[in-house]
Amino acid sequence: MIETGVSYFANGWLHHFERDLEDILAHHCTYLVHCFSENELIFARKRTETFFRKTRDVGIGCWANPWAVMGLFGGEQFSAFVPRNPDACQILSTGQRAPAACPSADETKAAMKLWIDMAIDFGADTLFWDEPHLYIPDWDDLHFASDDAFACFCPRCRASFQSRFGQPMPDKITAEMKIFREDLMVDFLTEMIGYAKDKGARNAITLLPVDDEANESLSWSRIADIRGLDIFGTDPYWFLHDKNCKEYVSLQMKRTMDICEPRGLTPHFWAQGFGIPSGREHELEAGFSLAVERGAKSIAVWGMHGNSAWDGASENPEVVWNVVGKTFGKLRSQ
Length: 334
Known about the structure:
Elements: E1 3-8, H1 14-26, E2 31-35, H2 38-43, H3 45-57, E3 61-65, H4 81-84, E4 89-91, E5 97-101, H5 106-122, E6 126-130, H6 155-165, H7 175-198, E7 202-207, H8 220-224, E8 231-234, H9 245-260, E9 266-272, H10 283-293, E10 298-302, H11 317-332
Helix pairs in contact: 1-3, 3-5, 5-7, 9-10, 10-11
């Protein structure tokens, strides 16, 4: 049977969460993706543990998402790690220190393992590695750096590149630089996913739905081969990228199935629940249904109530949430 999920953030009140859990169950969700950011890690450990426990108590899966943790994953949060560990940060091609950790730094790895330990100890059964990436200037609404800047030029990475390729690190994306950048994330994720697996957690990952030549791309096949990975997918947000729903979902689901089927991974699909224009809410049913038809076994929406707790909410968030609930119920009954 299809598994159905929704992301959860922006609320810290227990009584509100208990009502939300009832609402989530009524909308036929079988797992809840908690956005476990550095803020929760530092200031809300007891609350997070309570939320995780209550999630499992009602009989649904408890996923923990490292929401924008150290600037290495998707999410609208600032990192507390970055200002405290300037020498562990990525350096851009412009010479600027990026507001994101370098995955090769020992401090970064130690902090990520602390996050894993807490997520699992608090009760998460699945760790959700959401859009892992090196710093992407185009994502920063504060326009911190030019869009063509890229990482990482920290002393560790410069020395590593010189040793590996026998030449100084270039200031443009060459074939060697692309391999080196990809290896930074692949090596980091291999260590972290393996660490989590050894502690008994499942691992799910969503990669950006970009082509192989994009600067922010990661090799889907290399990531899918990581030991300990259980669930693999992508998030083709056709509203956000102004794409045709049928064409975009079909393309990305074919890519997903080509990766998952030979490896025995669970195919995973995210749909956008934010920023949906009035009158187009029905496209969610079409997108989810097509994803399932093309092989998805786990589907989810970002986030509940049309993202009405955050900027970028859908124009009619409750209509969006109702479509999600009806669609999830329909697909789970098939």
